[in-house]
Every structure is written in structure tokens, then in C-alpha cells.
Design a protein that fits this description.
The complex is a heterodimer. Chain A has two helices and no strands. By secondary structure, chain A is mostly helical. The relative contact order of chain A is 0.14. Chain A has one domain. Chain B is mainly α. Chain B has a domain of 234 residues. Chain B has a two-stranded antiparallel ribbon. In chain B, strands 3-4 form a two-stranded antiparallel sheet. A two-stranded antiparallel ribbon of chain B has the order 5-6. The two termini of chain B are 16 Å apart. The chains are: A mainly alpha, B mainly alpha.
């Protein structure tokens, strides 16, 4: 059963990719173009910020999963 | 839509030609490399036996020949685009095999491998569709600029992810074979449920499975040949471009999640792009019991293999079996994604 935790991590990565990509293409991409100015500027900044947040969320969750995996094994913890 | 006799001929040729090239020429090519002293130590075995490397050029040749044959059978530009991508990525890898590229130069050069795809699409807008097909939800709108940037970025990401799965006997060949099957299933479901897409899209994916399967015979434990960076980068770049031209990016990403996680954990633990020969510590070591152990060095990169070995040492053969089982699981998730996208 040494593969079970890694299979769970793979499944979590799968679900996150599905959900985040859907959010990106359906909600963030249709925002106004980032070179438009005026009332849309705030939306444009929000577009960039949300995209960045999606990426950060994926990496953070994957990073946390590895942290808990390594800690549960009581092994030498890699620098992070 | 069921495949026609012509489709079946095209698919059979796409498999048989590269498979037979690798199967018949690899023993001679490995002897040629050994005679010229082009061998590397297999450091995960007692006594570190010498193994001919790089077998990449023969793998690249067989992939390119297969795509040219496909072009002759079904004259569309796509097989030639794929051949160009494989050649560029393979040449970058060969340069790395012979002269060693830096940790940052290699990803930058690999972006070039995606250029023929974008250029071909600009002149002939049938090479790829710049929209993503989501499971259940269907396709997004067309986003050519974003899609093309992602395409260029995917080349170094996927090719390096493949390269980082190339550490043990049979690992890269088995990994490539399994993931290419997931790719073929995804494209197959798309082609046979959508009359707008021709079978050629499926045939261009088949050589990757054929070459990796034939190479597995020589690369499995105990290895008779190593592919080198040239082979791994060519495999990775071809996987990426076939996924894009086949329109199954989603399923393709899912199948290689173990490789993506492996790369991410390595890059985050060594803090950036570091050439593997320059890393401070190795992730694993060969114990006196001839088994592979996880390194206790805090500075060792957190590879998937090191994480697997935290539960105790394993033989190289068993370790690769575990990695391929994890890959098969990811391919299963990929198959579910394909079914949700194209069938339901």
C-alpha cells in the first residue's frame, strides 16, 4: 500500500486541474482585455490577480500534501 | 463512426514501421555506441556496469521516419510539424548529452520546439484548435494568443517532466508507453465520436507508443541501452504536440500528473532550475543490501522515487514497477477524463 498516498495526491491534482481550468476559461478569460482603461481597469487587474491566485492555490495544495506525506513518514524533511 | 479499411492500414503502418526500426536496429546501434566508448555507468547497480548511451538518435530517427510515412499515406501538414518538433527537441537533448547544457538554457531552447506548430497554424489554420474541451462542460471559446503561449510553454515543461522520469531501467520507456496509450485513447474517442476530425490525428500519435514499447525491450531491467536526454526530451515534446494537434490537452495533462508532480517537487526542493549533475545530493543511494534507499540528506531533491522509498528500500525492478503502477493509475484518471469529455 505504499502507493496509496501518492495515488491520493494524483487524484487531488486531477480534481484541482479540472476545477481550476474551468474557473479560468469560463470566468476569468471572458473579463475585458487588460489593455482597456477606465471603468474596466479594476476588472482587468482582478483578471490577472485571479489567474495568479489559481496557480498559487494549486502549488500550495500540492506543496502541503507533500509536506504532510513526508512528515507522516518521519523522514528527512526537504528544505522548503 | 467506425474505422475504415484505409484507417486501419494507416494505423497499422504507423505502429509497425517505427516498432520494427527500433527492434531491428537497436542491438546494432548499442554495439556501435559501445565500440566508440559511448557508455555511461548504471549507478543503481552493484559494480555500476557500463550501458551504451545515448540511444536517443535512433529513437528520434524512427519517430521522424514514421511521421514522414504517415505524411505519404495521408498528405496533411501535421505529421511534418510533429517530425520538426521531435527533431528540434531531440537535437537540444543530443547537445545536452554530448556537451551538457545549463539548467536554464535547456528549457529556453526547448521553447523553440513549439515554434513550428504555431507557425504552421498561422499559415494553415487546421493544425490545432485554440480552444480547450472540458469534461462535461464542453469547449471554451477560441483564445489563439493565450493558447499559443501555453503551447510554447508546454514544450519545456512536458519535455523536462519526461526527462526527470528517466532515472531507472525501464522507467522512461514504460512511462512513455503508458501515457501514449492514454493519449491514443483520448484521440481515438474524439475521432470516432466526432465526424469533423480525421483519423490521421490518431495515426500520428501511434508511433510514440510503438517506439517506446520497442525501446522498453532494451531499456527494461537490466538495461541494454539508455536513451539519454535526446530520447527523453524527444518523447516529451512529441507527447505535448500530439496532445495539442489531437485536441486532447486535458486528458494528456492528467496522464502525466506523476511526472508533473515529480518535476514540481524537485524544482521546489532545489529552488529553481539546477542541472541534475550539479545537484548537491542524490535523492537515492544504493545500499550494501543492493537495494535503493531514500537519501537522508536534507538537501537531496524530493523526487517521486525518494518519496516512494521513505516507506523502506526497494530493488530497482520493484521501484520501477511501483512508478509504472502510479502512472497506470494516472492514465486511468485520464481515460475517465476522455470518456467524460467525448462520450458523455
Amino acid at each position: 500500500m505504499r502507493l496509496a498516498p501518492l495515488m491520493i495526491m494524483t487524484s487531488v491534482a486531477w480534481l484541482l486541474i479540472l476545477v481550476e481550468s474551468y474557473v479560468f476559461f469560463e470566468f476569468i478569460v471572458p473579463f475585458p482585455k487588460i489593455h482597456e482603461i477606465g471603468a474596466f481597469t479594476l476588472l482587468a487587474l482582478l483578471k490577472v490577480g485571479l489567474t495568479f491566485a489559481l496557480g498559487v492555490a494549486w502549488f500550495a495544495i500540492m506543496f502541503l500534501l507533500r509536506y504532510f506525506y513526508v512528515r507522516s513518514r518521519g523522514a528527512a524533511r526537504p528544505p522548503s | 463512426m467506425l474505422p475504415t479499411a484505409r484507417d486501419l492500414l494507416s494505423l497499422s503502418v504507423a505502429f509497425a514501421v517505427p516498432f520494427l526500426i527500433v527492434l531491428s536496429l537497436m542491438p546494432r546501434y548499442a554495439r556501435f555506441l559501445a565500440k566508440r566508448g559511448m557508455v555511461v555507468e548504471d549507478v543503481h547497480k552493484v559494480g555500476a556496469p557500463k550501458v551504451p548511451s545515448p540511444a536517443g538518435p535512433l529513437l528520434i530517427l524512427s519517430l521522424v521516419v514514421a511521421e514522414v510515412v504517415e505524411f505519404v499515406i495521408s498528405p496533411t501538414i501535421i505529421p511534418l510539424v510533429i517530425a520538426a518538433v521531435v527533431l528540434i527537441a531531440g537535437l537540444v537533448g543530443l547537445f545536452d548529452d554530448l556537451f551538457v547544457l545549463g539548467g536554464k538554457e535547456k528549457p529556453l531552447l526547448l521553447i523553440l520546439a513549439g515554434v513550428p506548430v504555431v507557425v504552421a497554424e498561422l499559415f494553415n489554420p487546421t493544425v490545432y484548435s485554440s480552444r480547450l474541451y472540458f469534461p462535461i462542460f464542453g469547449p471554451t471559446g477560441e483564445h489563439f494568443t493565450i493558447f499559443s503561449i501555453l503551447l510554447l510553454a508546454s514544450m519545456p515543461i512536458v519535455a523536462n517532466a519526461y526527462n526527470m522520469m528517466d532515472s531507472f531501467n525501464g522507467e522512461i520507456s514504460g512511462f512513455t508507453f503508458l501515457t501514449s496509450l492514454a493519449l491514443i485513447l483520448g484521440i481515438g474517442l474524439r475521432v470516432f465520436t466526432s465526424p469533423s476530425l480525421a483519423t490521421e490525428r490518431l495515426a500520428i500519435a501511434v508511433p510514440l507508443a510503438a517506439v517506446s514499447l520497442a525501446f522498453y525491450i532494451f531499456n527494461r531491467y537490466p538495461a541494454k541501452a539508455f536513451d539519454g536526454d535526446s530520447g527523453a526530451l524527444a518523447f516529451g515534446a512529441m507527447y505535448a504536440v500530439v496532445a495539442v494537434t489531437g485536441g486532447v490537452e486535458f486528458a494528456a495533462i492528467i496522464a502525466i500528473v506523476p511526472a508533473i508532480l515529480n518535476s514540481f517537487y524537485i524544482l521546489s526542493s532545489v529552488r529553481g532550475f539546477v542541472e541534475r549533475r550539479k545537484m548537491d545530493a542524490r535523492p537515492t543511494y544504493l545500499g550494501e543490501d543492493a537495494l535503493l534507499h531514500a537519501s537522508k540528506e536534507p538537501s537531496a531533491p524530493s523526487t517521486l522515487v525518494r518519496m516512494l522509498l521513505f516507506d523502506g528500500p526497494l530493488s530497482e525492478k520493484e521501484l520501477v514497477r511501483q512508478i509504472l503502477l502510479l502512472t497506470a493509475f494516472a492514465c486511468l484518471l485520464s481515460a475517465v477524463t476522455s470518456i467524460l469529455t467525448w462520450v458523455i
